[in-house]
């Protein structure tokens, strides 16, 4: 299919797409910080957000690194390099979940695509669990 946009127009469109994603992530971050979550706190397992007082940890799993069932595509090259790395990542996430639960934490894992498509929905999932939020 030929590209119907000029180069300039195309790059304008692309930059809009990019900034839209960034805004959504920012919006998600602001909402959580509004609830007094810490962004990338220094706690075990490196969650993206945590609220120590209520023992809530939130992870945002990358569609690529965590093998999202909807978006994960095998890399075309260097499979022997990527495969163990990605699998280790998935395994590690399970271990982290286990450890958090053992310590009495509530763990939320959202897909990167969930945050992009509907950050409010993700927030609602967290707040449903804690009526006072
Ligand atoms: Zn995905």
Written account of the structure:
- Helices cover about 50% and strands about 15% of the residues.
- It has about 130 residues and is of the alpha+beta class.
- It has a single domain (about 15-130), classed as 3-Layer(aba) Sandwich (Endonuclease, Chain A).
- The chain has a 4-stranded mixed beta sheet with strand order 1-2-3-4, sandwiched between helices.
- β2 (about 50) and β3 form a beta hairpin.
- The longest helix has 28 residues, at about 5-35.
- It is flat and about 55 Å long.
- The model has no long low-confidence stretch (mean pLDDT about 85).
- Zinc ion (ZN) binds near residues 68, 111 and 113.
Q: Layout of SSEs?
A:
Elements: H1 7-34, E1 38-39, E2 49-51, E3 56-61, H2 79-102, E4 106-111, H3 112-117, H4 119-129
Parallel strand pairs: 3-4
Antiparallel strand pairs: 1-2, 2-3
Helix pairs in contact: 1-4
The structure holds zinc ion (ZN).
Q: Work out the helicity level.
A: 40-55%
**Mean pLDDT value:** 85
CATH top level assignment: Alpha Beta
Q: Can you tell me the overall shape?
A: flat
Number of domains: 1
